[in-house]
Amino acid sequence: MLRSRKRALLLAPPDRNENVAGLARTPATRATVPPSASIVSTIVAFSIACSAASSIPQFSNSAVAVEQKPSCFNPGSQMKNNQTDMPNTEGALTGVRILDLTDERAIYGAKLLADLGADVVRPEPPEGDPLRARGPHREADAGMTSLWHRYFASNRRAFRVDTATEEGAAQLRQLAQAADIVLTCMHGFGADVLEVSAALEANPSLVVVETSSFGADGPWRDYLAPDLVAGALGGAVATTGDVDTPPLKTFGELNFMVSGAYVAIAALSALNHARERGEGQRVHVPVHECIASCLEHVLMWNWYSHTRPMRQDKSLARRGSLHWSNAYVVMQAVGGSIMVTPTPDVDAQLAWMIEEDAHDDLIDPKYLELENRPAFITRMMELLHQWVGTREVEDLMHDAQSRHCPYGWVLPIERVADNPQLEARDWWTEYPDGVRGPGAPYHFSATPWAMHGYEPAQDADALFAELDWGTQS
């Protein structure tokens, strides 16, 4: 088993030092605590953690003593998971107020912020959040609870509001003006009555993050795109499949997970700017641009393919798991598949193959010539295919990792669910009603994330009666 290492990010929540009655606002008194102690560190965590939830680099940051206000969540309704036994139950974003008007394009971003302790309220139309109908469902209860919604909409207070009425629209605008962050989606619920410009005028430090499929302008600005279409038009789908298959759909809604992570990063970046300079801002996050930004070497190949010896076209042909360098590919081993690469130390890989008598002609002096290095890599991968096919997949991965060769076993889903690394790091989390699900993609030592209750939506009047947004950073 790979050794686990505890990651630490010591984040202190911001000071809240303004007294406002109810939802009314008065001019902000700026906090004197350097924002880099909290918001900037959280941005760093998101930039790394949300993009690769299973591999968290090690960071450290000095804890800063600041005045901490109680969370706006009702303590009586909090549910604790296996991480909330720590002395400090404050979240990294405790006291940050967020109005969540996201749909599936950005709801993951709202979840990331809510899990860090922000006080997030989520309005729903009178008939309920349409995302509550999304599967899979938990059949054990009569309400057929959506496990999808329970995960993505957890740690929030939901309430029903009829924005078709003047009273409902006014309530939504009132919340927007009292919030620190507003997350909204183009064509989404509440977007038509929000009056963002008026909210920013009433609250100059407000951060508004607007997610759209393609952006606020351009020829496609009014187009809509579900996850599959977003991936197709953003270019991600074109990189899937093999030479003899059509492009493939990525599992679930990974494209919207990407845009959701960008939403969280954008919100924290803008909030940090507001804390430093007292200036709010309006941020646009087009899903289309989020996906295109992740194409990495695919775009580089398109622009600079004329410099590559393998050039056949302006784009690299779809070739399954085979990397453009020919040095990374998924191979079949005994009992499963494994990602194999001789990088970063090709000489170490060669030494291992010599040790296993699997090297054949790889020590031929001709491969020492620079012009023959591509042929050397191609030949090494051919021999690796043969050798890997004789090895048991799990033993091979551990053997490779012990030699600092970054092989990766393609774990079946049932083995991911029984992963000793995730168990050792207490990653699995008990959701309300005993549902076991994914944890957070980060581990903060001073401000651990916590799972709170997942309650049905309440009436707007009930929410306003209990809402305590009477302080401001």
Helical segment tally? Answer: 15
Cα radius of gyration in angstroms: 25 Å
Which structural category do the helix and sheet elements fall into? alpha/beta
**Can you identify the CATH superfamily of the largest domain?**
Crotonobetainyl-coa:carnitine coa-transferase, domain 1
* Average predicted local confidence, pLDDT: 79
Beta-strand percentage range: 5-15%
What name does the CATH topology of the largest domain carry?
A: Rossmann fold
Helical content (DSSP H or I, runs of 4+) = 25-40%
How many domain units? 2
**Mind summarizing the main beta sheet?**
7 strands, parallel
| Low-pLDDT sequence parts | 1-42, 48-88
CATH class of the largest domain: Alpha Beta
Count every beta strand, where a strand is a DSSP E run of 2 or more residues.
16
CA-to-CA gap between the ends?
Answer: 45 Å
Please render the helix and strand layout as text.
Elements: E1 18-19, H1 39-49, E2 97-101, H2 107-115, E3 119-124, E4 137-138, E5 145-146, H3 147-152, E6 157-160, H4 166-178, E7 181-185, H5 196-202, E8 207-212, H6 227-234, H7 254-277, E9 281-286, H8 287-292, H9 297-304, E10 329-333, E11 336-340, H10 346-355, H11 373-388, H12 393-402, E12 408-409, H13 413-416, H14 420-424, E13 429-430, E14 436-437, E15 458-459, H15 460-466, E16 471-472
Parallel strand pairs: 2-3, 2-7, 3-6, 6-15, 7-8, 8-9
Antiparallel strand pairs: 1-16, 4-5, 10-11, 11-12, 13-14
